[in-house]
Specification:
- By secondary structure, the chain is an alpha/beta fold.
- The protein folds into 2 domains: about 60 residues, DNA polymerase, domain 1 (Orthogonal Bundle); about 270 residues, TIM Barrel.
- The protein has 12 helices and 12 strands.
- The strands form 2 sheets. It has a 10-stranded mixed β-sheet with strand order 1-2-3-4-7-8-9-10-11-12, with helices on one face.
- Helix 2 packs across helix 3 and helix 6 runs parallel beside helix 7.
- The longest helix is centred in the middle third of the chain and has 17 residues.
- About 50% of the residues are buried.
- Its EC number is 2.1.1.192.
């Protein structure tokens, strides 16, 4: 099934970046360093710098032999991403960084600082091929998949930023640009590096990592069999197939029922509640009957293993849709809860800098 998914959602043919330290297995790193005349223990030493100290330039790794630093940099640490600009919102608590990749491709990541945590929203693709009409990223189309290291290095860069601020990165959400499960193999590899303890990864708790999807049902089931306990977030946006075929075009392949069946399988395998993402759009998906239907379907399919994350629609340039009024939002929440399903409204961050959910478009200067 993984091969089928690769064909169905293949990115346009673009050059992938040169391979980086984070793209290799530990055994491959040892072999590459051996070719440079370096002993086995150097792989672990370099990993401690990368994952533990968030350093990506061997030239600054003073415990490496000076003569070898340049060679290690050239062999294992090509420059993957260059920051183009960083903009701030929420009194500096939210920062959005525009990155340029080796081939000129642009992507964005968003770092959100809260009192009790720091959350990074990362991209797994440059652009997105899911074509959801209310999402700026989806409307821009898919450029290419990101490499594993391009995903991982977004985390390293944010962790370095938080360390410089005297704090730490605690949460990572795959809710930036792209459909994570359409870049399955690289995303799973990146997740393992995010959650593994140093020197094999950044040591972020699996419970603090969220992988979002619009509902690629076979890939959800495959993820369930990875024996991970990260949070699965399903961007449902409406409980009925008729409307979802329009709002989330992949629904034409996998219906609401199939998506929820796969989500239940994930919940049963992981023991984690599934988060249902629902962008509330005025006069489109905010009706009382849809709130009732959503609660009923989720209660039946997932029982206590579900939570609805209601998202007031964030504005995007040229969009004909806008957010539901507050009283409609409150009634929607009340009706979902009345069906026995927890429902809360997401705290929106970064809207004024186009950093909120559905707004990432990676526009150049």
């Amino acid at each position: 099934m993984a091969e089928t998914l690769t064909l169905q959602f293949a990115a346009p043919k673009r050059s992938m970046p040169p391979k980086h330290f984070a793209d290799y297995t530990e055994e491959e790193r040892i072999e590459l360093l051996k070719d440079l005349g370096l002993p086995k223990f150097r792989a672990n030493q370099i990993a401690k710098h990368y994952y533990g100290r968030f350093e990506a330039d061997p030239r600054s790794m003073t415990d490496l032999p000076e003569a070898a630093r340049e060679e290690v940099a050239n062999a294992l640490f090509p420059v993957l991403m260059t920051p183009v600009r960083t903009v701030a919102a929420d009194d500096g608590a939210t920062t959005k960084t525009l990155w340029e990749l080796h081939d000129g491709t642009l992507l964005e990541s968003v770092l959100m600082r809260y009192k009790d945590r720091a959350t990074l929203c990362i991209s797994s693709q440059a652009g997105c091929g899911m074509a959801c009409p209310f999402c700026a990223t989806g409307q821009g189309g898919l450029n290419r998949n990101l490499s594993c290291a391009e995903i991982v290095d977004q985390v390293r860069a944010a962790a370095a930023t938080m360390a410089a601020e005297g704090s730490r990165l605690s949460n990572v959400v795959f809710m930036g640009m792209g459909e994570p499960l359409a870049n399955y193999k690289r995303v799973v590899s990146a997740v393992r590096q995010i959650v593994s303890p140093a020197p094999h990864g950044f040591g972020i708790s699996q419970r603090n990592v969220t992988v979002s999807t619009v509902g690629l049902a076979p890939a959800i089931r495959k993820l369930a069999d990875e024996d991970l306990s990260v949070t699965l977030a399903v961007s449902l946006h409406t409980p009925d197939d008729e409307l979802r075929d329009t709002l989330v075009p992949v629904n034409n392949r996998w219906s609401v029922e199939e998506v929820l069946d796969a989500a239940r399988y994930y919940a049963d395998r992981s023991g984690r509640r599934v988060s249902i993402e629902y962008a509330l759009i005025r006069d489109i998906n905010d009706q009382d009957f849809r709130a009732d239907m959503l609660g009923q379907k989720l209660h039946k399919a997932l029982g206590p293993l579900v939570h609805v994350n209601l998202i007031p629609l964030n504005p995007t340039p040229g969009s004909k849709w806008d957010a539901s009024p507050r009283e409609r939002q409150d009634e929607f929440v009340r009706r979902v809860i009345a069906q026995g399903v927890p429902c809360t409204v997401r705290d929106t961050r970064g809207q004024e800098i186009a950093a909120a959910c559905g707004q990432l478009a990676a526009e150049g200067a």
